[in-house]
Amino acid sequence: MKFFTPEEIEPSEKTLNIIRQIARTYRVVHVNGKEISYCIN
């Protein structure tokens, strides 16, 4: 398994903002023991 080290390139702030935006809108709900994912707009 490979781990990030300080010498490696880190994601740009633009990339991190896109990831944060997706994380804020993506949700998972548990229904009858199943996971259902949906996106909030």
Descriptive notes:
With 41 residues, this protein is α+β, with helices and mostly antiparallel strands. The protein contains one helix and two strands; from the N terminus they run H-E-E. The chain has one helix spanning 13-25, and strands at 26-31, 34-39. The protein has a two-stranded antiparallel sheet. The longest helix is centred in the middle third of the chain and has 13 residues, at 13-25.
Quick description:
The protein has 41 residues and is of the alpha+beta class. Helices cover 32% and strands 29% of the residues. The protein has one helix and two strands.
Mean pLDDT: 79
- The helix content, as a percent range, equals 25-40%
Net shape = elongated
The low-confidence runs, each spanning 5 or more residues with pLDDT under 50, are: none
| Largest beta sheet: strand ordering | 1-2
Biggest sheet architecture: 2 strands, antiparallel
Class computed from helices, strands and strand pairing: alpha+beta
Number of strands: 2
Measured by DSSP, the beta-strand proportion falls in 25-35%
What's the number of helices? Answer: 1
N to C succession of SSEs: HEE
Termini gap? 35 Å
Radius of gyration: 16 Å
